[in-house]
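Q: I'm a student working through a structural biology exercise. My instructor gave each of us a protein and asked us to get a predicted structure, then write a short paragraph describing it. Mine is SseB protein N-terminal domain-containing protein. I'm not confident about reading structure output yet, so if you can add a plain explanation after the tokens, that would really help. Here is the sequence I was given:
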Amino acid sequence: MCLFQYEDDPEPEERVPAGPLYVPVLPGRAEVVVRLFRTPLGARTAVGFTSAERLAATLGAGQRWIRLSESALRAMTEPVGASLLTVDPALTAPAVTGTATAAATGAVTTPVPQAPGTIARTV
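A: Happy to help. First, here is the predicted structure for SseB protein N-terminal domain-containing protein. I'll explain a few features afterward.
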């Protein structure tokens, strides 16, 4: 930890605008629906990428997307409980498949990725 504070050093919690983002959307819908994810600890998060190539590398080439500013994405997702924004996540976990026991009991399982910076596939 640095003992000295400098005027030009940003605070750790200070939000820095990310610029226009490539935001994944749900496929097969007439309207555009932003896709939400979960952090490794289970909190809902919106996700944006700084390039279409990064989005395709993480979520696959077939993932549909729209361009939104950071403020527009936050305004759309905060009312539904996704107050976090993850920019350029490196990893995603595969979609969860239910087991016969879970299907019989009606239980829903949610993956908890282990790698830092990992997000679950879809909320």
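A: Here are two points you could use in your paragraph. The chain has three helices and seven strands. Confidence is low (pLDDT under 50) at residues 101-118. It's a good idea to check both against the output above yourself.
Q: Great, thank you!
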